[in-house]
Amino acid sequence: MTFLDRALAGADGDWMYRFAASLYPICRSITGDGVRATLRAVGAHLPLTIHEVPTGTAVLDWTVPREWNVREAWIRGPGGEKIVDFAAHNLHLVSYSVPVRARMPLAELRPHLHSLPDRPDWIPYRTSYYDENWGFCLPHRQLEALPEGDYEVCIDAALTEGSLSYGECLVSGRTTDEVLLSAHVCHPSLANDNLSGIALLTALGRALADASPRCSYRLLFAPGTIGSITWLARNRERVGNIRHGVCLSCVGDGAGPYYKRSRQGGAPVDRAFAHVIATRGRGEVADFFPYGYDERQYCSPGFDLPVGLFERSRFGVFPQYHTSADDLSLIAPEHLAESYAMVVEALDVLESDRLLVGTRPHGEPQLGRRGLYQAIGGDAERTDRQMAMLWVLNLADGRHTLLDMAERARLPFRIVRETAALLEQHDLLRPA
Ligand code: ZN
């Protein structure tokens, strides 16, 4: 069994979906008990180390913020009934809202209420991390119908000296070459933008441990921006081992696939994902831009790590993005499984790409005499395998890697890799 076969054994879409669904009700933010509960759930499946970094710790140009936890938050209308309740949906409360206990007329409350006029039935997702403020989010249709009168507002939240939590898991391979795999864990009840990446990364971590990989894999489950900045600040001396990396987000729907290159642009991970998307015959590959998820931090100029971003729907573009409509109906087991397979196919390139040289470069070797025509016949990939054999023999001049060959031949890397292994068995190829 190859790395690819072993890693693909973890492509259990139903499991990933169920795991995402189990995490959906939890109120996460950039700090607090929701992140801890999420990391503990991940840690039930992986040897995860949970790090706690105290409030006030200087991390690069940032400071670890106070920890935020909510007990309850609601608004009572003029009639005394709860019209908005955090217990009903955690998106109702602006994340990092400061504590409030007050009565006020609608005009005073109104600036603290957020809605989406063009999506009147959805609750928006809003945060106020680095600005002391408070607010509630609700469907625009409900906001429009609020009567004049006095409203009672309660946000029983604590902003305290605590810590920022992130989870880290190292799957050791045969070499110290590291692959950084990163997912953000700071969004509350949002399925595609948050939970899909967490579920895929957890499933992948379980499978990698059994895949006897060449590379070592460092899995990071951290709150967006401040979490990756904190990790980078505490691991400056370690980042030199990172050869490849990718952030995973929005991997639970059927759009795309989409890959955003690292800042380096032509790193092996960039070529690997571009190749996987090209062989799928659909999807998009974009150049790096300094907006998005934690690739922004990994690709800041002082680090300039080869870390890209893999998604299905692009963040900020799909209509449900950062709204209550990014719920469990937006993601599906088959899409999670397909995303998983694409990531593993890209990792297979990083695991297996190598230089080979042909032992009989003068004229084509006689394949029939060696039984190689029989070996390649008989399956649905027959034509691809036949072409792969000719391409590999032709390009195995010690200057083209297997990925170079796969790109040039427009054939899946797996077929080129398997063909090269077969030719090696027949002493027609050797390591360069
Ligand atoms: Zn987001």
How many individual domains? 3
- Measured between the Cα atoms of the first and last residue, the distance is 24 Å
What is the CATH topology assignment of the largest domain?
Aminopeptidase
Largest β sheet strand count, sense and barrel closure: 8 strands, mixed
How many DSSP helices?
14
Could you say which structural class the secondary elements and strand pairing correspond to? alpha/beta
Strand coverage percent: 15-25%
CATH superfamily of the largest domain: Zn peptidases
Record the strand order, biggest sheet. Answer: 1-10-12-11-13-16-14-15
CATH secondary-structure class of the largest domain: Alpha Beta
Oligomer: single chain
**Low-pLDDT windows of residues:** none
What small ligands are held by the chains?
zinc ion
Q: Report the radius of gyration as a whole number of Å.
A: 25 Å
**Any idea what the shape is?**
elongated
**Name of the CATH architecture of the largest domain:** 3-Layer(aba) Sandwich
DSSP helix fraction = 25-40%
Give the total of beta strands: 19
